[in-house]
Amino acid sequence: MGARFWGSQCRRCVVSGLVVVALAGWMLTAGPHGAEPESRPDPQVLLEKVDKIYSDGKWNGRLGMVLWKGRFYIFFRSAVAHDQDGAIRMIRSTSNIPRHWSTSPYSPENYQATIKAGRPVDPIGPGPEASLVIDSPADESEMHVLGTPERLFGYVVLLVAGSDEVIGTQVIHTDNGTDWSKPRQVYEPGWSFWKPRSYKDTHFVVADVMTGTRRIELLSSTDGVAWKKVSTIAEGPFTETDLVFLKDGTLLAVARQGRVFRSKPPYTEWTSRRCPTLDGPAVALVGDTVLASGRVAAGNFPDAQQGERRNGLFSIDPKTLKFQWKMNMVTQWGGDVSYPHILSLDRHRALIAWYDGQRYQKGVPKQADIFLAILRLVPGM
After folding, report:
1. How many CB atoms lie within 10 A of CB 277?
2. DSSP annotation of 124
3. What is the pLDDT of residues 196-218, one digit of tens each?
C-alpha cells in the first residue's frame, strides 16, 4: 500500500469584496451513449469573501464542516506534517454567522479576554488554540461529521501510526459540542468512511476498502451508529467518494479517481462516466446547481497563482454528468492543498472551506492553514 500524500496513487494522500470569476470553456467530452439532453445555462460563481480562519504554523487539513445547533463547526487533522501522526481538533463560530471563530483574536469574547489580561491589542496576538477532540496512539487521519437535531457524530478514520495501513473507522458523538463519547468501531475493520449525508431521515455514507477486493459501498443508517450495506457502487481502486442528493431523490457520487456515479432509489443500480480527478472531493447542491471541489493539477486548470496544485471548483450538470471548471480557490503556496467541504447557505450562496499548505516533502514538517470563502451563484447569460 502506497503513501497517502497527494503525489501518490493511494487514498489520502485574505481577500474580501465581490470578485467576478470568468467562466472557463473547458468541459468533458460526452460519454458513449449518444446525444444528451439540453441543460439550463450554467451559473456564474462569484467570490463574495475569502478569509484565512486558522493558522498556527502546523499542518492543519482534511476538513469536515457542519452547521449544528446554531453554530458552524470545522474539524481538521492537526500534525507537524502531512505524513506524521495527527490528532483531530475543532474550531467553531460564536453564532450562526460564520465570521467570529473560537480561535479568532478578533471575536468579541477573545478580544475582551485580551483586554482583561492586560495584553496589548495593537498588534493583537493570536487567539486561543483549536480544541482537541481526539488523539490516540493510532493516527487520526481525518474526521467526517454528521449533524442530527440532537446529536453531532464524528467518524474518525484511523491509520496504524507510522504507516499507511487503515485500521478502520470509529464513531464518537457529542450532545453539547464540547463533551465527546468514547470511540467505538463502526461497520467493519479496514473500511474508511467519507462525508456522511442525510436524506429523508436516513443517513448515507460511502465506505471504501483498500485490501482484498477493492471497492466502494453505499451504506445506510437510521441512528448514525449501526450501518448496513445498500449496494456496491463500483469495484476497483476507488476511494474518497462524496454524495449529493438531487431534489428528485437521484443520488450522485463523486470518487477521487475521476469517476462520477449516478443512481435512483433504492440506490442499487449505478451508471457512471469519467470526470476530472478531484483529490479529497466535496459536492453539494446549492439551489439547482451541483458544485464540486477538490485538488487538481495547476497545469490542467491554470491561473496566475504559483505552485503545482490547486483547490478547483466545478459545477456538475446532473443530466449529462459533465463537469465545468469555475475557478481555483486562493492558494499561498500551490503545494499541499484541498480536502474541501461545501455547505449550502441558501439557493444562491454557499460556504467552502479548504486547507492550503506548503509543498509536500516526505517526513519534513510543513505548514498548512485553513481558508473559508463565501460563494455567490448568479444565473448564467
Report:
1. 17
2. B
3. 999 999 999 999 998 789 999 99
